Amino acid sequence: MNAENADFVNFQGRFQRSKMTDLNLMRELAIEGQTKILLLVLDGLGGLPQTPAGLTELEAARTPNLDALAARSICGMSTAVAPGVTPGSGPGHLALFGYDPLRHEIGRGVLEALGIGFDLQPSDVAARGNFCTLDPQTGLIADRRANRIPTEVGARLCAKLRQIRLSGVEAFVEPVKEYRFVLVLRGEYLYDGLTETDPQQVGKPPLPVKPLRPEATHTAALLNQWLADARRLLADEYPANGCNLRGIDKDPGLPKLSEIYKLRCGAIATYPMYRGVAQLAGMEILPTGETIEDEVETLKQHWADYDFFFFHVKKTDSRGEDGDFEGKVAVIEHLDAVLPDILALEPDVVIITGDHSTPAVWSAHSWHELPVLLASSYVRPDSVMQFGERPCMAGGLGHIYHTDLLPLAMGYAGRLAKFGA
Amino acid sequence: MNAENADFVNFQGRFQRSKMTDLNLMRELAIEGQTKILLLVLDGLGGLPQTPAGLTELEAARTPNLDALAARSICGMSTAVAPGVTPGSGPGHLALFGYDPLRHEIGRGVLEALGIGFDLQPSDVAARGNFCTLDPQTGLIADRRANRIPTEVGARLCAKLRQIRLSGVEAFVEPVKEYRFVLVLRGEYLYDGLTETDPQQVGKPPLPVKPLRPEATHTAALLNQWLADARRLLADEYPANGCNLRGIDKDPGLPKLSEIYKLRCGAIATYPMYRGVAQLAGMEILPTGETIEDEVETLKQHWADYDFFFFHVKKTDSRGEDGDFEGKVAVIEHLDAVLPDILALEPDVVIITGDHSTPAVWSAHSWHELPVLLASSYVRPDSVMQFGERPCMAGGLGHIYHTDLLPLAMGYAGRLAKFGA
What we know:
2 copies of one chain form a homodimer. Chain A is built from 15 helices and 13 strands. Chain A is an alpha/beta fold. The first copy, chain A, starts with a helix and ends in a 9-residue tail after the last helix.
């Protein structure tokens, strides 16, 4: 865009802002600075008591360092997406990164590709694949998950499917786990806007891929050709004698955090999917190890290089999904133990929260609000003396949304110009 | 409008309300009444503690009258514009007056003209002018503020620039302070949608004014001719041998409060800018003196004549900007001392808050929420016994937005009809 057009867009923006996302307001106000912001995400942090009178995982954990930080912070409760809505990992993180997750979605195919560390290009079309069992007589779906074949079998079948050749595009087939795989098409003229093939019911045939807009017609034809070849190659395999494609999508082309907020953003995460989402948001991925200590070491090494750090702790969510209350408590206590090393770097603004709740008693993501803590020299400390769900309900931030967090961090970091004269 | 059209508009409105401003809802529901609303704005009221364990300015101030009022009020915290966003005086007041400040903006040129009490007409185009130093050899900007020339020099140069004649329009040049002045063009066919001339960097030439829409082409040409004449007249002045124009804009043409809310609105403010913003919103300006006592006297004199009073106290903000914690405390205590005289008038609804925070430790406007108090015979008093930031965090209003305040006041004043059957 040349400067003249930029002027024109800004002028339009001024009068049309109400129709646009708040990202435009942030883009307009963001200024460069020397301050540093740390967003510490304990995946699935929010919990529930095991008995009505009991404590949540976070409340039960012995967290002297989080509590001391909460005491000098402003705290509150935050909704990741919308009241009552349980976020997937994609929307939960998009919201933490300041994107309205109801406007910006990452397709399941893209998330699955990011989750295995696939180097997805902006023009690639990615689909989540499911091996399934087709009735040999009727061709109707008999088992949508092919009796959950072992991961090794899935890997062998993926190798077989790599034989498929499509005119003008490359087709990558990568195993994920059990019956799940990823298909990525790479080439020119590939578009998203495509239906899924899984009818989501047994006793029905797999559906063809249909284009939802004219540009996607060619991509649909390529995928249908790939599916026909795949079914031929799988015909003598049992129970995985068929497959379906779901969530066929491209990189959503998010406006980059670096550009919106004028921040150099570094991401530290042990799992590929979170690195992938951070990358879509325009962060640089900092190589790290497997443990929280490795992540802290990475943070220290790169402290001088970035203005904003996304620091992701995965295992709170894993233990929650396992229904392992004590295990989740232990991960929180583990993070608490390394917190002094993190705070010794003297970030100007620290936000600690989760992308969604994963209460051990629920053994899955949930819709519950997240406790959140914001520390800075310029907060009005509230009455919260302990980092936990019940204390944070009385916090000075009140009840906010995840999408408020990055703008708040920018304000506290002195990185937003005054709005209007 | 005849009755049939009115029906049609209401019918449309019902389905389009989500796309429209809430002002239409207010316009639809507002009814006349005998009740009186007082909006008492302590400019820059919100503060911060000087040490983490300390008190804010408002908390430190000895305010027996505000505290007694808070005890029979419902209190809360209010965001002026958006989380993390620091409001200028224009947006802060627009929000207090019920206008979404992200949809309605007042240009810097207009605010500057209002700030010196210039009698701006709706069709005028106003610009903030800055004298600057141009390198005599290269013509590039050497100092964007002309070494902050004394106000008297600025005034002499403005007198010189009044010689400039433009075809078909009048050009008013008024000094503001030091290197700042206001240029107002008055005539027909003047449009806003114009770029600034200040490149915001030294070592670059002043830019021409460019139209951002076709209608503004003629106005841009007039301003460029004025600038060419101005540079000729200033050529032998040093260091103020050039000038720039910024924030070139017109009266935003706000829908008037009197019309939306069916209120006769009076404004009492000691500073021209706040009188100007109130005037843009459709209030009548009540002449007053320099002190808070003068303002109270004005309020008493006009008590019978209006339904809604905007009462503005400036110096809380001034002392905050100065970094003068004790000075700001003293202004708050001063207001507290006259509060009984104000309450003796028996307003039906009193709202006390600020347009934005100006913590003395930050010495500037800030993004922090504002404590707010709403008193009426019909509130459910909450547990807040002291008017201060931390007490208000636990208030019964919770966390609201400034744009909620006028609708709340209207409700408590019994001036909104029931919505729907």
